[in-house]
Amino acid sequence: MNRNFENIPLDEDTLILLSSKMKFGELDCVFQAWIYDQIQGNSLIFYDEDLVSKTDEDLKNWILKESEIVQDKSIRKMTISRNFEEHPFVFVNFDFQEVA
């Protein structure tokens, strides 16, 4: 792992349960499990420059095809967040569950 993921933005209302650097294919990324607004979910966080050739749909399909990390295999239940003006990260969010 040679990428620095120390400046990942965090919403002040989000509780991070787990954050771990990992490889997804050949790319460095971070896996996070979190709770926000009584929803528990997971994210894979990549650098946007590593994904310039992938559309949101391409990215979702690639993750579903290449990983067992996503439990809910419905592509409609995955979200992608890209905010190039504020930070260099792409968030792929999945496996949402309501928590009490």
User: Element order, helices and strands?
Assistant: EEEHEE
Q: Write down the overall mean pLDDT.
A: 92
Radius of gyration: 13 Å
CA-CA gap between termini: 36 Å
Largest sheet: 5 strands, antiparallel
Uncertain residue ranges: none
Number of helices: 1
Total strand count, please? 5
Biggest sheet: strand arrangement: 1-2-3-5-4
- Helical percent range? 10-25%
Tell me the fraction of residues in β-strands, as a range.
35-45%
> How would the global form be characterised?
globular
| Helix-strand category | mainly beta
Set out the fold topology.
Layout: E1 15-24, E2 27-36, E3 39-47, H1 56-66, E4 79-82, E5 89-98
Antiparallel strand pairs: 1-2, 2-3, 3-5, 4-5
What does this structure look like?
The chain is mainly beta. Helices cover 11% and strands 43% of the residues. The protein contains one helix and five strands. The protein has one helix at 56-66; strands spanning 15-24, 27-36, 39-47, 79-82, 89-98. The chain has a five-stranded antiparallel β-sheet with strand order 1-2-3-5-4, covered by helices on one side. Strand 4 and strand 5 (89-98) form a beta hairpin. The longest helix is centred in the middle third of the chain and has 11 residues, at 56-66. It is globular, with a radius of gyration of 13 Å. The termini are far apart.
